[in-house]
Amino acid sequence: MDKKFKNYVIYLSILTIILMVAYFVVKDQLSLQCAYVIPAYFLITLVTHFFLSKAFAKNPQNFSMNFMGGLAFKMLASLAFLTIMYVAFDGISKDFVAIFMGVYLVYTLFEIIYLKPLSKPKEK
């Protein structure tokens, strides 16, 4: 595992731990039952970044195209997860959707902030 990917996994794990702690702090107050959303997004984001890092290593000039493809994959994986939860639990609550969208936004912002320096061309 290269150093950049290892650092990404560490930062992503820290973000996931922070989100899980925040969830368990407020879940009793709001009577939420959606703890599996955060680990699911951890896996979706990790897989997306793994494929992005491989694509970026092959051709750094196509960063924008690869990044947009990664976001599309993440969106489709999220939609698949949402569909599975809808079918498995015979519908979903508004609380689930709110947590789902909040976690999606947090992980997407994290990915954008982490990958933004890679979009700049290296100076010679």
Task: Summarize the structure in words.
By secondary structure, the protein is mainly α. It has one domain (3-118). Helices cover 82% and strands 0% of the residues. It has 4 helices and no strands. Helix 1 (3-30) packs antiparallel against helix 2 (37-58) and helix 1 packs antiparallel against helix 4. The longest helix is centred in the first third of the chain and has 28 residues, at 3-30. The protein is globular. The mean pLDDT is 82.
Mean pLDDT level: 82
Q: How many discrete structural domains? A: 1
User: What is the CA-atom radius of gyration, in angstroms?
Assistant: 16 Å
The end-to-end span amounts to 27 Å
Relevant terms:
single chain; 124 residues; mainly alpha; 4 helices; 0% strand
Q: Strands, helices and their partners?
A:
Blueprint: H1 3-30, H2 37-58, H3 63-88, H4 94-119
Provide a brief overview of the structure.
It is built from 4 helices and no strands.
